[in-house]
Design brief:
This protein has about 500 residues and is an alpha/beta fold. The protein folds into 2 domains: about 30-45 and about 195-485, TIM Barrel, CATH 3.20.20.40; about 70-190, Jelly Rolls, CATH 2.60.120.260. It contains 10 helices and 18 strands. The protein has helices at about 20-25, 195-200, 210-220, 225-235, 250-260, 290-305, 325-345, 365-375, 390-410, 480-485; strands spanning about 70, 75-80, 80-85, 95-105, 110-120, 125-130, 140-145, 150-160, 165-170, 180-190, 240, 265-270, 310, 350-355, 380-385, 415-420, 445, 450-455. The strands form 3 sheets. An 8-stranded mixed β-sheet has the order 11-12-13-14-15-16-18-17. A 5-stranded antiparallel β-sheet has the order 1-4-9-6-7. The chain is elongated. The termini are far apart.
Length: about 500
């Protein structure tokens, strides 16, 4: 298994890709196995002033300056676009570089890189915002797939370094001879809550068909209905999609479309990895790797350019332990990488977060290796505590350790989100319908993480266990819901 190649300064000689052996990617640790199952108060968009950092991003003057091109490239302006002819002799992506230098970056500052691009043939190229000198740290490092159709790309990120020697680069080598075109190149400052899909909506979407809402409608005379409506059913939360969802294109498109019509931001969970939940209470998933690739590609395509938040495959990274051999672990990692690539390329207005387990499960350095191997660098970041109970503070501390390992090993850090649906009283060491748990902070931006989200639907059972021994996974229990409201 190979990690993505290191960031490089594009006017100098460089080292090649860093190899990540299967053994190092597969360092395994035992831990609890949370179960999951399928199944507002919105945050307002924050308006923030933006500062443009690149020069001549529209090529209106007819000149490419101060954009430069390196070996194996020829650069010009054609029909108001930047045209770059790439030669066939480049062995590595960074052997055919183009870019702009002297980009100021500030540690902890949020930025958004956007541009339109196309290519004369179908190719995958590398895009970075990075340090222009050793060690070439790249706060943004993305692979994009291009063809003859000009497409808009938008990549929000948070800088992990402070420098006046930043670069915006496109690394076009190792793909043979082709013509690359780009326009409307922009790198702006601005808080993460003021960029990406959050800025385009008026708050998180409240699912009117979530299990708690459906129960309230069907049981309006129940004495518990008003409390469940007020405390749970009226709050924004995620909808889970899997092999129960029917035609995935229709299911996802209808859900995202309803949110878009209401000017709200939907949260979706993709939960269909083969061998899901290691045979536990939420076992299942796609029947084969090929079936999963078809399913997840259709999922991402159904979102399209509409704004969304997506949680990718709860437990799938942490549960590599459960798979019987390296071949199956490598297959799962390849499927997760494929999923991240699909959301990156097909759902261009989505912030996708790859599940990273919880604060009490996998050692942080091991999780960092797994997230890198599973393609977390292709998407917005990672999410913690899905369907679990650890406090936001515990999750934030764990995320800091994961990011420290990502930075030291791979030269980047990632934003993260936390599931706060049931963490109001923290964890008691149990994961399956434990007593004494409580609702946490409703979905919002900030609060210790980039996003706090109700990913698990409060009141939906983890399985026939704990204080709900007769309630199957995914079934709503009003008793569980009231216990979460009261913290009992």
């Amino acid at each position: 298994m190979k990690a993505h190649s290191p960031s490089v300064s594009l006017s100098r000689r460089h080292l090649g890709p860093i190899a990540l052996t299967l053994a190092s990617a597969m360092v395994l640790a035992c831990g609890p196995t949370p179960a999951h199952a399928p199944e507002s108060e919105g945050v307002s968009a924050v308006s923030q002033s933006l500062t443009e950092l690149v020069v001549n991003g529209t090529f209106a003057s007819g000149s490419v300056s101060p954009w430069w091109n390196g070996p194996n490239t020829q650069s010009s302006v054609e029909n108001g676009q930047w045209r770059v002819n790439v030669a066939s002799g480049a062995a590595n992506p960074w052997d055919a570089p183009i870019g702009q230098d002297n980009i100021p970056l500030t540690n902890g500052q949020a930025y958004t890189l956007s541009f339109t691009a196309s290519a004369s043939t179908s190719v995958t190229v590398r895009v970075t915002v990075q340090l222009g000198v050793s060690p070439y740290t790249a706060p943004l490092d993305q692979q994009i797939t291009l063809d003859g159709t000009s497409r808009q790309f938008t990549f929000p990120f948070t800088s992990s370094l402070t420098t006046n020697q930043g670069q915006v680069t496109f690394q076009l080598g190792s793909r043979g001879a082709f013509t690359f075109r780009a326009d409307n190149l922009s790198l702006t400052t601005g808080g993460s809550s003021g960029s990406g899909p959050i800025a385009q909506t008026s708050g998180f979407y409240v699912d009117p068909n979530a299990n708690p809402a459906a129960w309230v409608r069907a049981n309006s005379g129940d004495s518990r209905a008003a409390r469940i409506q007020s405390s749970i059913a009226s709050k924004p939360g995620a909808r889970w999609f899997g092999n129960w969802s029917g035609d995935i294109t229709t299911a996802v498109s209808n859900f995202v479309g309803a949110a878009d019509a209401a000017d709200k931001l939907p949260v979706l969970v993709a939960y269909n990895i083969p061998g899901r939940d290691c045979g536990g209470a939420s076992s299942g998933g796609a029947g084969s790797p090929d079936a999963y690739r078809t399913w997840i590609s259709a999922f991402a395509s159904a979102i399209g350019t509409r704004p969304a938040i997506v949680i990718i495959e709860p437990d799938a990274v942490a549960q590599l332990d459960c798979l019987p051999n390296d071949t199956e672990r490598q297959t799962r990692l390849s499927l997760l990488r494929y999923a991240t690539e699909q959301f990156r390329d097909r759902a261009t207005n989505t912030w996708a977060y790859l599940d990273g387990g919880n604060a009490g499960w996998i050692a942080a350095d091991t999780m960092a290796q797994r997230l890198e191997s599973a393609g977390a660098h292709n998407v917005r970041g990672f999410v913690l505590n899905v369907s679990n109970f650890y406090t936001t503070a515990q999750s934030t501390s764990y995320a800091g350790s994961v990011n420290s390992s990502l930075s030291s090993r791979y030269g980047y850090t990632l934003p993260f989100a936390v599931d706060t649906s049931r963490n109001g009283n923290g964890a008691n060491g149990e994961w399956c319908n434990p007593a004494g748990r409580k609702l946490g902070t409703p979905s919002q931006t900030g609060g210790g993480a980039e996003l706090l989200l109700w990913v698990k639907v409060p009141g939906d059972s983890d399985g026939p266990c704990g204080i709900a021994p007769g309630v199957v996974a995914g079934q709503f229990s009003p008793d569980l819901a009231i216990r979460l409201i009261d913290g009992t």
